[in-house]
Design goal:
alpha+beta, four-stranded antiparallel β-sheet
Length: 150
Amino acid sequence: MKPHVLPGPALLLGLLLTAAGCATPEARINRHGDLFATFPPEVQAKVRQGIVQLGYTADMVYLAAGRPRHTQQRIDETGTTQIWRYTAYRWHSSPPYWRRWPGGPWWDAPPYGWDEREEYDVLRIEFRDGRVVAIEQITDTPVPSRRTHP
């Protein structure tokens, strides 16, 4: 009788390797070498380092920073701005509290609290007429906001 092998772990490993394949500028450059070759040498050097500068096109930003987690559009009196947002997560936890066990004279042993994941921007890039016109980058790690117990 043949042993039964589940394809799950192998499939998961393949998906992780595929997802990680575009996680660095070098991986994106290798995947889109023809596009990268069209950039001027000084831009190529910055893109290899993952650096974005004013005046870059969306293709240059993609190769340097990757695909944004969110995109949005702002329309105002000066025109339309495309915004790419790169985000990270931080966790909030309530302080542990103890609750009395129903019907018993003792208090529950495990602390009860809550956890919440909050998304925040680490990099915001604004495009107007196909070129980068503004870059906002977080320079420190934000402190989780103080919240009270629910």
